[in-house]
Design brief:
The chain has a single domain, classed as 2-enoyl-CoA Hydratase, Chain A, domain 1 (Alpha-Beta Complex), CATH 3.90.226. By secondary structure, it is α/β, with parallel strands linked by helices. It is built from 10 helices and 10 strands. Strand 4, helix 2 and strand 5 form a beta-alpha-beta unit.
């Protein structure tokens, strides 16, 4: 189907659309990238030749979330916020399988969790590092993370910010299949093709039932997450967290 900003879309004979992010090596996102992704997903909802989506990324990492160094684009402009675009993603109808290589960090973890399924390699790592940045989690992880791993485990991951490697991620439910890195795309495509082989009206109907009310819960969660992120963004702890991360050292938080 072509290109949506830094997102390419290719629909194949298996009724699977490969949607790929092209911001290597880290695939940091901003409002433009998530907007482009939402546009691609919405277009695929209307494409008769697409029955499932394979979401993947060029480069070393699936997605390292927002780039707090300031080198990436903004997360908002005068008329919209990145999370407005995220709501559009959650509202689309086509099942999504994410192929997760390298890191899914922060908001990148949120993007991975927005998919219906995740296929990862043992070398992958899933990190909700927000507390280590002096920040609040986002990208609707308040909804998606407990749904995948349970409330208690989600709280642990959010409060500790620890890295979860691929094998542990499989055990706890952060990913659904674990395969060698050189087979990652093929296995993720195979899962998407399995889904696409079902009757398309039934597949969408089942998915809608299983995700019933999710878009509304996501919208409400994002409002809360955004408000807390804006509040904490001006704190000394956030400045220290970002600086410590850039300098690869432990942060020295002061609680202000």
């Amino acid at each position: 189907m072509g290109t949506f900003g830094d997102v390419t879309v290719d629909v194949d004979a298996d009724f699977v659309a490969t949607v790929e992010l092209h911001r290597p090596p880290n695939n940091h996102f901003d409002i433009e990238l998530i907007g482009s992704l939402a546009e691609a997903f919405e277009a695929l909802d209307e494409e008769p030749g697409c029955r499932a989506i394979l979401l993947c990324s060029e480069g070393r990492h699936f997605c390292a979330g927002a780039d707090f160094s300031g080198r990436a684009g903004p997360i908002s402009d005068r008329s919209r916020h990145l999370y407005d675009e995220a709501v559009r993603l959650f509202a689309t109808s086509t099942p999504v399988v994410a192929a997760v290589q390298g890191a899914a960090v922060g908001g990148g973890l949120g993007l991975a969790m927005a998919a219906d399924f995740r296929v990862a390699s043992p070398e992958a790592r899933f990190v909700a590092n927000f507390a280590r940045l002096g920040f609040h989690h986002g990208f609707a992880l308040s909804v998606t993370l407990p749904a995948a791993v349970g409330q208690q485990r989600a709280l642990e991951l959010l409060l500790t910010g620890r890295r979860v490697p691929g094998e542990e991620a499989l055990r706890m439910g952060l990913c659904d299949r674990l395969v060698p890195a050189d087979r990652l795309r093929d296995e993720a495509h195979s899962l998407a093709a399995e889904i696409a082989a079902g009757a398309p009206l039934a597949v969408r109907s089942i998915r809608e039932t299983m995700r019933y009310g999710m878009a509304a819960r996501v919208r409400k969660a994002l409002d809360r997450e955004r408000a807390e992120q804006e509040r904490l963004r001006v704190t000394e702890d956030f400045t220290e967290g970002v600086r410590a991360t850039a300098e690869r050292r432990s942060p020295n938080f002061a609680g202000r």
